Predict the 3D structure of the following.
Amino acid sequence: MYNFKEIENKWQRVWEEGGIFRAESTSDKPKYYCLEMFPYPSGKIHMGHVRNYTIADCIARFKRMQGLNVLHPMGFDAFGQPAENAAIKNKTEPSKWTHSCIDQMRGEMKKMGFSYDWEREVSTCDPEYYRWNQWIFLKMFEKGLAYKKASSVNWCPRCETTLANEEVINGTCWRCSAAVLEKDLEQWFLKITDYAERLLEDLKLLTHWPQRVLTMQENWLGKSLGVEIYFRLSGKNAVKPIEKDKEIIPVFTTRQDTIFGATYIVLAPEHPLVKKIIQGLPEEKKVLHLIEKVAKENKIVRIAADVKKQGIFTGRYAINPVNNEEIPIWVADYVLMEYGTGAIMAVPTHDQRDFLFAREHKLPMRIVIEDPVDPLKTPLKMDEAYEGDGRQINSGHFNGLSNIEAKEKIADWMSANPPAWIGPASPKPRAEAGGISPDKSFLDLSRHRKEIMGRKTINWRLRDWLISRQRYWGTPIPIIYCGQCGIVPIPEKDLPVVLPGKIHITGKGGSPLAKVDEFVNVSCPKCGKPARRETDTMATFFDSSWYFLRFCSPQNTESPFDKKEAKYWMPVDQYIGGIEHAVLHLLYSRFFTKFFQDLEMVDFKEPFIRLLTQGMVLKNGEVMSKSKGNAVDPDEIIERYGADTLRLFILFAAPPEDELEWNTKAIEGSWRFVNRALRLVEDFTPNDKKGESSGLRTKLHLAIKKVTEDVEQRFQFNTAISAVMELVNEIYATKEADTQEAIEAVILLLAPFIPHLAEEMWQMMGHKTSVFAEPWPKFDTAAIKQDTVEIAVQINGKLRARMEVPADLDDAQLQQMVLRDKKIAGYLQNQPIKRVIVVPNKLVNIVA
Ligand code: ANZ
Ligand code: ZN
């Protein structure tokens, strides 16, 4: 039973006083930047944090011992809504509450003995931090990347704030789970879509990121190669004429191979054409009613696969440019205005959503891609759409081609040829079926769509990033509205725009800042006349999109970060955090990095070279969490066993990327091992058992090799620790020389895992300097080589085989090994064995 409290306290003090984790860019050692995702300061740290930071700390300490110049910083992602909720509940100011949470969390991290360079700590709610958010925003504004637009946004009625698409989970708010609505508001956006191509392309550089994160990023960007096809509004049923240039309806499709199977068109309810084409028709009222209804529905819900689609016929028709076919125009909620052109051609036979919709509304269908498995089907016999590949049928001169080939051919044909209502390169309009007007004058009004059926386009799923929040506890957006000058950016010299204190937060009725007159009323920086400040604050994801750069020069007062320092430390060599940030935080950080690259503030493309996403901590198979009531408080474990035992347990229980099941017994096991290792040192007397040695030395060097490789190549801490455990057993079991070398190696090998006790043991062995100033032990290849020997195997005195076997096996082990060998068994052919003669490390003779 060792006094972990005293020991851990002592070493934490020594580390702090010695400043041994201070990172300096002047070193000539190679740098290593180890970073974990900085936390929201909710107050206490939970087991998920402990796991995340223990993994990172182990890596940082290991790399330091390997001779690298390590930067391992920590800070706090300190803006955000919980501080406002706490303010309402406890009548404390958000800043007070946040700072006390930060103090508490920092204290808990120190108790865990994490090797942070605390001199670099940053908090995003510090004006010296968020002034640079404002600076970055202004740079983006200057480059046209920050802009304001009225838009229909996701609105959480409970939090009374807008949400980014990413913050809507299954139609509900990610924070409070209320059903999300739509609302029209003037909002600030960042034009991340300008970077879509680079964000996609550079995923190729991220060869040390988990594949699933790369896939999630790729899907989020959602690049689609397709064709914009120009349908034409038919005059049929028209009551009022519309502007000529509105007569073309572009639709976006990725399946131009199915163009001959389009049997109707669907416009998004928000499509500007809808209200125009229905004017005066009997359908008008019903259509308007649907538009109104859908406007209130959340978009993510609208397109969900398991939600029933609503739609209605407009009374009007469109003409397919490839065959002059007149098909009905519908309005339905499953088409969104934000994607593509806000209009689709529906192919019910080859698109499942269209299929269900067409069945429901008895719309016609036509098969145009033949299912090779079931070629004779008619649409009536289909029970679902055929979305696979096959030969083109019912597709004019493309019949017989594979659809994959046809996709290319059709795209090329469409972009080079006029629509069917003009006729192939014929200057003379010909009479056409279906009462279609031969009037072509409209074509001149839409020049880019002139005289072609369609053209290839690219569509992205990625939308611009909505950063406005109607919240208090965030970075004020540095903009002033002047009646005369319009939108005026705040001059750089006036930054930061500081949040006013003493504010009354109610959680209701929009932005709290809008109610603070002294904040709102300013004079225009341009003309000096009375003007108003923007009262929205920035989404907190803005804050965390560049903090890793701030850590390179946290006190810099000239710019967000010092260029030279960033050049030295960045990119982050190892980033560690939760999979929940796989899309947003990582995408935004990548976007900011590319923006800084364009400003020539950094000279690399990607911020994080390697990414490790640690697994969840579970208890009884469920994710440990306060709300589930199954959380184990790290503090309690530290009280009872000390931080080292907790660290060892966390690292030993599972590989970092796997889930970790909490196990009280296993903690006991770690506790026992820690004590057992300590006893080894306590019992050691310097000059016992000198002499030439053998087995232990080999095992020692094998262990060094295993631990080094497991940690370095795969972060397999669990197998590394178990190798040290075996080595400790060996030392206990061996009564020979080399124990000093072995014990000291054990201490060094354990140092990244149980740093406090390792220091203590190192001192007990008579050393005066920190164990973390020691180089990581190197293995001796010669010592390992001795580990195997070649033996001869004879049967009845005749040499039958030579075998490589571990050295120093005892007779029984050696005999067993030889008899199990396939080749030997082949010679023996089940003959009864009379006797086996063993000469250790040399020979086995079988008498059969
Ligand atoms: C005809 C078609 C036939 C389609 C077929 C699919 C299969 P991605 O890959 O996501 O880009 N689409 C286009 N714009 C839309 C909108 N605003 N709202 C809802 N759906 C829209 O998907 C492209 C496909 O999504 C397009 O290709 C279109 O349906 C639909 F057998 O066009 B397709
Ligand atoms: Zn002005």
The chain is about 35% helix and 20% strand. The radius of gyration is 35 Å. The chain has a mean pLDDT of 90. Residues 12 and 693 are 38 Å apart (CA to CA).
